[in-house]
Amino acid sequence: MTTVIHSAQLVTAGTLTPDAWIAFTDGVIDGRGTGTTWRTLGAGQVIDAAGGVLAPGFIDIHGHGGGGASFDDGAEAIATARAVHRAHGTTRAVLSLVTASLDDLAARAAVIADLVERDATILGSHLEGPFLDPGHKGAHTLSLLRPPDAAAVGRLLDAGRGTVRQVTLAPELPGALAAVSQFVAAGVAVAVGHTNATADDAFAAFDAGATILTHAFNAMPGIHHREPGPVVAALRDERVTLEIIADGVHVHPDVVALAFTQAPGRVALITDAMAAAGAADGHYELGGLAVTVTAGTARLDDGGAIAGSTLTQDAALRLAVGHGIALTSAVDALTRIPARAVGLEDRYGALESGRAADVVLLDEHLRVRTVWVDGIRV
């Protein structure tokens, strides 16, 4: 059966088309246009968007959980957390795993590999650790951090069975550049993060094949007029996508706007959400570390560092647009750009013929009205 959604402000691939419609059949986009031309299709289901914003399904390449559940805690917890974010427009996600022992991290990557086989909305795993700088560890267990080596990298890749989609590492660590090459050769998108890297260290990683900056500005040196650091390196390198947590806590909205200005078409709005996203304030655990969430902000009990977020991607959209980012650019940063960052731009992230019918309908306040995944209303 063909479904048509009409009378929408269609936002996709960097453009806004008023009074637009899309059609999808068997989970795939198979037409779009403007006005009333959809009437010739003989659709089985017709939905009036009533002027709402119609966008591709959001793609989160960096999040840890939600609804009181963590992606580290197995298939049932993953299902709980994914349901929360799906209701906020995130139709596909890379599941981020915090630092753990190699045994535990390999087991968790294997669980996600199993899930990928039966749930195409899970795009694979993101190993955020253990190859991180101790001085910029954030909410990662210090005793479990380690430099990368070929055996450890190989073990994690084997456990993921081709589903490790992204890895974050500190490029200044011994063996890190060789690890970048090893991960890239296996088809993994490598991100620089949780790092004390200089700009030269970051450029060396980018030259070795790294293409992402993990939650830019956080857990890394900031911009200094004599020591530009990894953020400036990423802003200047056209090969690099910058992850941004647009929750008003991790990065000031003016700095979010600066990133969009200085790296147009290269910002991916992520959540970095932990279990408290879509849940109440209170006490939680992230990677074995105690976390308290107060007024929606998560911080470690020991030391007070920010410990992930309680963000959803629709809220990130509202913050970005509310601080002057063009709607087309903000939607791109939730859809096409993250898809491209992990090598899936040909399948997801745009409402074009032949793509998956992952669709989000928002109201005039950019709040989610309806979500479709593979053409099924969820």
From TrEMBL:
Amidohydrolase-related domain spans which residues? Answer: 54-375
Q: Which UniProt keywords apply?
A: Carbohydrate metabolism, Hydrolase, Metal-binding
Extract the Gene3D superfamilies matched here: Metal-dependent hydrolases (3.20.20.140), Urease, subunit C, domain 1 (2.30.40.10)
Q: Which residues bind Zn(2+)?
A: 128, 194, 215
Signal peptide from the UniProt entry: none
Q: Keyword Hydrolase: yes or no?
A: yes
Q: Give one GO molecular function term.
A: N-acetylglucosamine-6-phosphate deacetylase activity
Q: Which InterPro entries match?
A: Amidohydro-rel, GlcNAc_6-P_deAcase, Metal-dep_hydrolase_composite, Metal_Hydrolase
Q: Which gene encodes it?
A: nagA
The family assignment reads: Belongs to the metallo-dependent hydrolases superfamily. NagA family.
Q: Which residues form the active site?
A: 272
Organism phylogeny: Bacteria, Bacillati, Actinomycetota, Actinomycetes, Micrococcales
Q: Record-annotated residues binding substrate? A: 139, 218-219, 226, 250, 306-308
First-level EC class: hydrolase
Q: What is this protein called?
A: N-acetylglucosamine-6-phosphate deacetylase
GO terms, biological process: N-acetylglucosamine catabolic process
Comment on bound cofactor:
Binds 1 divalent metal cation per subunit.
Q: Which Enzyme Commission number(s) are on file for it?
A: 3.5.1.25
For activity, the cofactor(s) needed are: a divalent metal cation
